[in-house]
Amino acid sequence: MTNRLEMHGVRKCFGATRALAGVDIKVAPGEVLALVGENGAGKSTLMKVLSGAHTPDAGEMFLDGEPYRPGNPLRARESGVAMIYQELSLAPHISVMENILLGVEPSRGPLLDWRTMRRRAARALHEVGLDHVDPSTPVRRLSIAQQQLVEIARAVALECRVLVLDEPTSSLTLPDIEKLFELIRNLKARRISIIYISHFLEEMQKISDRFTVLRDGQTVGTGITRETPVERIIALMVGRDVDELYPRTSRMPGEVILEVKDLAGEGKPTAASLALHRGEVFGVAGLVGAGRTELLRSIFGLAPVRRGDIRVAAYSGAAPPHKRWAQRVGMVSEDRKAEGLALGLSIADNLTLARLDGLGPWRLVFPSRQRAACRPWIEKISIKCAGPRQQLADLSGGNQQKVAIARLLHADVDVLLLDEPTRGIDVGSKAQIYQLIDELAMRGKAVLIVSSYLPELLGACDRIAVMCRGRLSETRPRADWDERQLMLVATGQEES
What is the pTM assigned to this prediction? Predict the structure, then answer.
């Protein structure tokens, strides 16, 4: 059987930087290929070559046995190659049907054929399970999950032969993920080839037929997913064996350093109580929108508190962020691009932002001292960069996240509030962050983690509570939970 897509010896350089050093992949009709690798491994560059956004320096591509060299994204779409990026590329101010047929609108002479447009859009929406969505609805009124399906409907309407899904579940709830997987199975049945890019290896194992691993711009392994242990895939990704993804040294919880009693915000949380000890990693599970992020923001002073009490060591009551920093409480936001980091500044500026003392007299900052203060953290948590003065925007997502956590380490906080600390980063970076969290707990730091990734909470935490509709469940030891029980409480099907 002829493969739907083949890429042989694909190379791409940007100046002296070698992004792709000889990549080979193939995908059969009706097959799901998982493309995995660490941040910076070359996945994004390879997909930009496939989609026509980049021209390869060397190599060959074939689509259904015919030479394929698109030249630009429009030619790729016309050839049947569709890309669904993690950051959706819809026009929110126009209708669903206009988005679906953007660039290929049917017309009658000089006028758009709105009736045909509506009929074709409705057919595409039916294919992706959005029959209930009116094609004339503005895209901005749809949920993130629905918008993603509209993007897939656009690919279906163009009769795509290859569909690339880049981190498609990063912003989806578990029910939405299951709906997406069902859609992928339906597309497989129609012999559409799918390239599935994800950092969630459990998802990859569930939905893909084969996998290909990239490392340092090269193909380093491929195989049948169900026949390959996940440990083998991780070893291929990081270039070494990862003995334990979630390290757990002996921890001795100490005194309570953060206590929250009957906390309620303007909207959520509605009722939350917890006690966080020194030397402990405490996890908060729950569905998107349950109030987990709002809980952390209320504690840190980023959201108003309507009722309840917050005690940090000897300090009691609500406080703004600058006072929380003074009380040695630090937070890493789930949205590192919008509010967690200043991407236009350097690594050194971001890392030292919360603690400038010692970097110069009279509140001045000497660049040499700032760089010296950053280098130990860059080395300790293996931030891949050209140096402290490199602009943060130039780093991969995983290394940006390490800088956000390094800021808390430089500030020497006692309480770390981590909201989705490993979202959108590769397995190698995750393993390093889990190792760091374990070391911090062993040193007596207190870590509060909010995460949608249940294996992460079960692997890294000592105790876990679940947020459901703004209310925090009673806390249980990690050993008393499993993924099923966490989901039952998170969906309100089991009283804690």
Answer: 0.68
Q: What percent of the chain has pLDDT over 70?
A: 97
- Give tens-digit pLDDT for 97-108: 999 988 788 888
* Of 467, 423, 449, 466, the residue nearest 268 (C-alpha): 467
Fold of the domain built from segment(s) 256-490: Rossmann fold (3.40.50)
Reported as type and span, the H/E element at residue 264 is strand 256-265
Distance CA 177, CA 151 (A): 15
Number of Cβ atoms within 10 Å of the Cβ of 149: 25
Rounded Cα distance between 307 and 262, Å, is 7
User: Both ends of the chain: CA-CA distance in Å?
Assistant: 54
466: β partners: 285
- Rounded Cα distance, 180 and 399, in Å: 29
Q: Pick the residue with more confidence: 323 or 105?
A: 323
- Do the beta carbons of residue 379 and residue 406 sit within 8 Å? no
Computed on alpha carbons and rounded to an integer, the radius of gyration of the chain in Å comes to: 24
pLDDT of residue 20: 92
Buried b / exposed e over 232-242, threshold 16 CB at 10 Å, is: ebbbbbbeeee
CATH no. of 5-238: 3.40.50.300
Structure tokens at 20: 């792709």
Q: Are 106 and 113 in contact (CB under 8 A)?
A: yes
Does residue 448 register a pLDDT over 50?
yes
CA 145 from centroid of its chain's CA atoms? 15
442 φ, ψ to 5°?
A: -65, -30
Tokens of 273: 């109580």
pLDDT of the residue at 496: 43
Span 337-356, pLDDT tens digits: 778 899 899 999 999 988 88
C-alpha distances in Å from residue 89, one per residue of 1, 92, 197, 471: 34, 9, 17, 35
CA distances from residue 83 to 13, 100, 162, 168 in whole angstroms, order as listed: 22, 13, 9, 11
Beta carbons of 118 and 136 less than 8 angstroms apart: yes
* Cβ contacts of 192 within 8 Å, gap of 6 or more: 29, 30, 160, 161, 162, 163
Coil, strand or helix: which one is 469? coil
Enumerate the domain spans of the chain.
5-238, 256-490
CA-closest candidate to residue 339, choices 318, 357, 321, 326: 321
Which tokens go with 301?
Answer: 């002073």
Q: Left (φ > 0), alpha (ψ -120 to 50) or beta: where does 282 sit?
A: beta
**5-238 and 256-490, same CATH topology:** yes
Of the candidates 154, 164, 160, 79, the residue with the CA atom closest to the CA atom of residue 124: 154
